């Protein structure tokens, strides 16, 4: 009895609005892509609803043999003026600043316990990157303290001694901006 009910339920499929059929599957650009064919659908307007009547024929899709009437007009694209975005100066990261991937590796493996899921090479690389980041942090602290004392040349020299050219450029720009604002204040 139960098997007859189950067979009856399986035999009568539930009504589906649209059923796509698989056309092909295959690797494309390193990904596995499947293409489906979707049958044409018909949009039936509801009484008192002009949404479908106002839609252009390109959206509704014209059936074969039907031509758009003379009253249907293609919508005109509105004129838009695009103002170019102001040019932003991007500052490249210093050699001591870690990328997001490297920072995750340091957080996961630099001081990880023995049971952490890190390979020995990952642990070595993480410790090396952590030392590199610590050296940069130390140099940045030294440059910041020298700038706070007003020693611009010493700050630039400290950044250059560490090999941080961007940090030296930032320190030099900070000093020039400070000198320019001081000169403007004297006038």
Tell me what the structure shows.
This protein has 187 residues and is mostly helical. The protein has helices spanning 2-11, 51-54, 57-60, 100-109, 120-149, 152-162, 165-186; strands spanning 21-28, 31-37. It is 49% helix and 8% strand. The chain has a two-stranded antiparallel sheet.
List keywords for this structure.
8% strand; mainly alpha; 7 helices; 187 residues; two-stranded antiparallel ribbon; 2 strands; 49% helix
Q: Cα-atom Rg, whole angstroms? A: 34 Å
Shape: elongated
Order of helices and strands: HEEHHHHHH
Helical coverage, percent range: 40-55%
Content-based structural category: mainly alpha
Please state roughly what percent of the residues sit in beta strands, choosing from under 5%, 5-15%, 15-25%, 25-35%, 35-45% or over 45%.
5-15%
Number of helices: 7
Distance between the termini: 101 Å
Q: Characterize the biggest β-sheet.
A: 2 strands, antiparallel
Mean pLDDT: 75
| Strand numbers in spatial order across the main sheet | 1-2
* Low-confidence blocks of residues: 88-93
Number of strands: 2
């Amino acid at each position: 009895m139960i098997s007859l009910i189950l067979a009856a339920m399986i035999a009568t499929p539930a009504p589906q609005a649209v059923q796509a059929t698989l056309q092909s599957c295959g690797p494309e650009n390193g990904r596995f892509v499947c293409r489906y064919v979707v049958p044409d659908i018909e949009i039936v307007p509801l009484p008192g609803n002009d949404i479908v009547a106002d839609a252009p024929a390109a959206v509704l899709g014209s059936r074969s043999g039907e031509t758009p009437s003379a009253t249907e007009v293609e919508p005109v694209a509105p004129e838009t003026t695009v103002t170019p975005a102001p040019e932003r100066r991007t500052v490249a990261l210093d050699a001591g600043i870690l990328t997001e991937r490297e920072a995750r590796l340091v957080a996961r493996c630099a001081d990880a316990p023995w049971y952490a899921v890190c390979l020995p090479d990952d642990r070595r690389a993480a410790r090396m990157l952590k030392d590199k980041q610590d050296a940069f942090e130390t140099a940045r602290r030294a440059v910041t303290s020298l700038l706070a004392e007003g020693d611009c040349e010493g700050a630039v020299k400290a950044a250059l001694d560490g090999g941080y050219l961007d940090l030296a450029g930032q320190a030099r720009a900070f000093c020039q901006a400070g000198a320019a604002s001081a000169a403007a204040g004297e006038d």
